[in-house]
Amino acid sequence: MKKVSTAKVVNASEAAESPLPPQIQEALGELVGAAREGLLALSVGVGLSVVHELMAAEVEEVVGPKGKHDPDRSALRHGHEQGQMTLGGRRVEVEKPRVRSASGSEEIRLSTYEHFADRDPLTRAVMDRMLAGVSTRRFASVGEPVGSALAEHSVSRSAVSRAFVERTKTALGELMSRRLDDVRLAVMMIDGLDVAGRTHVVALGITTEGAKIPLGLWEGSTENATLATALLSDLVDRGLDPEQGILFVIDGSKALRKAIGDVFGTRAPVQRCHRHKERNVIDQLPESARDSIRARLRAAWSLEDHVLARSRLDVLVAELGATHPDAARSLREGLEETLTLMRLGISGQLAKTLGSTNPCEPMIEIVRRTHRNVKSWKDGDMRLRWTAAGMLEAERQFRKIIGYRDLAKLVIAIEREQTLSLPSPTPVENEEALQVATV
């Protein structure tokens, strides 16, 4: 019993001699309690303490030291009031200091509080979790803990839904207003995806450095000539230079092909997607003939000699014409444009990458994944918002395309071909040019 009593005396003495002030010891005790709720709750608690310190420092800077009279001060402390901040992806209640002008006529806003009270971090968290498949019902349960001492707000289903609508509207506006003045494209791919029974046409750009950029989104079919022209004209209106040499990779739509010629000129090179063309031909054949025809198509498209590849495809068209005329007609339509890359001298990995619209597939797959938990589509605006959000989410995960080092070679080949295909000047144009040169 005597040893225990001595230990108690020693501990009490050590506590009395502790260099920490009582308020710091109290704060440490609170942090130890918060640690029981998890490391993230602890981090939020520390972050909130820092925010309070920053607000107090700003008040002192605006008003001056507390307890010291200053006849020239321009502002006064005015107590505290309840406010809200975004911490841990949630809205939590905090007590913020108030400051008023020396005359008391107006409230002075604290920049520190304004910064941390911004809802954008919360809507970003809502966006990320909803696109990852978290439903509005489960949003609160997957959020980081903020500690039982802090009152939470804005995690109800309706609040989460409002935040997501706000964020996806921003995403759609950002995608459809993105300026393209300084973008140097080597390739543009246009493809479609089905959303709740409606078709969304998506445009993906590939820069000369190999980076992929979502360009735009429209609801409708590529077979709609008016829509096809409008979507390409919109890109030009946003600053895309129609004179730069761009390879267009499309699914074979006649309306889209015509729109490319109308907006970007008849010399714009077009590569028909091999996968779409193959599927269109194979669908016209009986099951017994499909494997052999598919193998012959792919063998011809894998060649590097444009003349030889065209010869083999012409032979195949002739053979199919005698046995399966519908398949022959499908293959004959736009046949030369399935060999555009070969004609431009592009082979290897880059030819495999650009021979189809497959580079669009990762983006389309991410869009589909973000849609998987939607049970009811209210209107076209909702469909567009969700698709735009998925496209921008995909952009965050993009990598350079395979074979990107040869994109400069592609651009040079396009520009050379377009220059060689320029029409010769007429005699009148020659005469006018001579007159200008003489002047």
Features:
53% helix; disordered C terminus; alpha+beta; 9 strands; 5-stranded mixed sheet; 439 residues; disordered N terminus; 4-stranded antiparallel sheet; 18 helices
What does this structure look like?
With 439 residues, this protein is an alpha+beta fold. It folds into 2 domains: 27-169, no CATH class; 183-419, no CATH class. The chain is built from 18 helices and 9 strands. Strand 1 (75-87) and strand 2 form a beta hairpin. The protein is elongated and about 100 Å long.
Task: Quote the average pLDDT.
Answer: 78
Report the major sheet: 5 strands, mixed
Count the domains.
2
Strand order of the largest sheet: 7-6-5-8-9
> What sequence of helices (H) and strands (E) makes up the elements?
HHHEEEHHEHEEEHEHEHHHHHHHHHH
Low-confidence segments: 1-18, 34-40, 427-431, 433-439
Classify the beta-strand content into a percent band: 5-15%
Q: Briefly note the structural class of the backbone.
A: alpha+beta
Separation, N- and C-terminal Cα atoms: 118 Å
Number of strands: 9
The percentage helix is 40-55%
Radius of gyration: 33 Å
Q: Which term fits the overall shape?
A: elongated
Tell me the number of helical segments per DSSP (H or I, 4 or more residues long): 18
